[in-house]
């Protein structure tokens, strides 16, 4: 049975493409496989680190852009507040001027009525003087 077991084991090894003649060869074969795996893992780690560094650089760049836009936004808000204050001041001045214009218009109307009244009185006086 042992001979048969060894025979089948050897057949299985041959079918898998692994020819092992001694335990030392088996260890060396395994070391080669492990070295290949370690090399592959190192390459993957290197790629992952490069990707991580690239993402970090992109993140730094995006943060810089966000900070610049926030700075610009703050400046625009400041300018807008100043313009709002100026607009409010001009609106107040305009309202005051409109009020003054309205008062002047009322005064003009009053003065025109008074002038018409005095002209009528003058005309009446002139007419009476002419009659006398």
Automatic annotation (TrEMBL):
Coiled-coil regions listed in the entry: 38-114
Gene Ontology terms describing biological process: canonical Wnt signaling pathway
Keywords, comma-separated and alphabetical: Coiled coil
Domain of life: Eukaryota
One term under GO cellular component: cytosol
InterPro entries from the UniProt entry: Dsh/Dvl-rel
PANTHER family: DIXIN, SEGMENT POLARITY PROTEIN DISHEVELLED
This protein's name: DIXC1 protein
Organism name: Mohoua ochrocephala
């Amino acid at each position: 049975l042992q001979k048969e077991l060894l025979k089948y084991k050897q057949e299985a090894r041959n079918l898998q493409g692994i020819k092992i003649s001694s335990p030392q060869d088996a260890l060396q074969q395994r070391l080669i496989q492990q070295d290949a795996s370690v090399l592959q893992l190192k390459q993957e780690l290197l790629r992952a680190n490069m990707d991580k560094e690239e993402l970090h650089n992109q993140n730094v760049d995006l943060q810089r852009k966000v900070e610049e836009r926030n700075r610009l936004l703050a400046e625009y808000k400041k300018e807008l507040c100043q313009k709002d204050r100026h607009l409010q001041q001009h609106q107040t001045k305009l309202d005051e001027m409109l009020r003054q214009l309205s008062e002047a218009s009322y005064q003009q109307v009053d003065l025109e009525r008074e002038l018409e009244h005095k002209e009528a009185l003058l005309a009446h006086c002139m007419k009476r003087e002419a009659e006398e």
